[in-house]
């Protein structure tokens, strides 16, 4: 028992000696920790001002290292961790970034302790190593306290601001955005008034009002997304920054289980109402339950059809009436062939490959389509009429 007490006393002596030396090097340690954190974590660079970050690290290191010199009852490191966590929650720093900074802090502090003992009493390094678990346990306790304080502060802020955030998003998306509203929304939502935005509208397959387990990413790469939930669909405002529409589509695809419509790029918050309407049009060009992502820019003819259903329905009746009058099986064969022919840009070989039939069969069906409709697939204006009429059949409800 006496030997163990002596060994523990020696560990405490070495730890306190090293901690006292580290406190003398506190600015250098702070510089190292801040640099390592900001170099490896974009969120810190983007959301936490450098001066704020440096001062909070300095205070945390001073209290944390100083805690080694104090009795357990007098330690204030947990309170310091809680204060910092609340501040980071208010700044919008992801909790993962906050907790990662504690891992880096533990590495920096331990390396510092080892360095001091190696300089001052190299023969005591084995003694210091016996105290390693105490150091890492102390940092773990700080990280746990920080995580709890972060979650509590986040819940407080969400409870106060969620209703206002949703109201602002609704106003922006429903054509009620003037310059004053845009300024208020920019401040409340931490968004630029002028910037590259797109609106995404998703519809889940077989969605019910209580279905609420879909993944709604708050960020996709450098892009930021703000979601608004509706009973039958979901809307996301995407701040694209420098990303293109192909980047948004690619990053969004793993999260889309149903259908999604994406607007063209607009240049500011006051344009989000128009973008929402165009995203709805894009979504209406989807056939079936997906997964499918429709960029409006790629679906303009189909969007024209769904935006003018009465005229489009009349067009399909005029152009395709003889085909629509056939029995269902025969009608679907001809419409499917026309659809494949248009998709394959008039290549009989590619159309035959898609339909698993001989190219002569394709030619025979095309001739029959031309005879029934009185249109020629060799005339550009007739192709336009046939393509729009086919879109109307596929996209508009049967009346």
From TrEMBL:
<dbReference type="InterPro" id="IPR025736">
    <property type="entry name" value="PucR_C-HTH_dom"/>
</dbReference>
<dbReference type="InterPro" id="IPR025751">
    <property type="entry name" value="RsbRD_N_dom"/>
</dbReference>
<dbReference type="Pfam" id="PF17853">
    <property type="entry name" value="GGDEF_2"/>
</dbReference>
<dbReference type="InterPro" id="IPR051448">
    <property type="entry name" value="CdaR-like_regulators"/>
</dbReference>
<dbReference type="Pfam" id="PF14361">
    <property type="entry name" value="RsbRD_N"/>
</dbReference>
<feature type="domain" description="RsbT co-antagonist protein RsbRD N-terminal">
    <location>
        <begin position="27"/>
        <end position="164"/>
    </location>
</feature>
<feature type="domain" description="CdaR GGDEF-like">
    <location>
        <begin position="177"/>
        <end position="285"/>
    </location>
</feature>
<dbReference type="Pfam" id="PF13556">
    <property type="entry name" value="HTH_30"/>
</dbReference>
<dbReference type="InterPro" id="IPR042070">
    <property type="entry name" value="PucR_C-HTH_sf"/>
</dbReference>
<comment type="similarity">
    <text>Belongs to the CdaR family.</text>
</comment>
<dbReference type="InterPro" id="IPR041522">
    <property type="entry name" value="CdaR_GGDEF"/>
</dbReference>
<feature type="domain" description="PucR C-terminal helix-turn-helix">
    <location>
        <begin position="334"/>
        <end position="392"/>
    </location>
</feature>
<protein>
    <recommendedName>
        <fullName>PucR family transcriptional regulator</fullName>
    </recommendedName>
</protein>
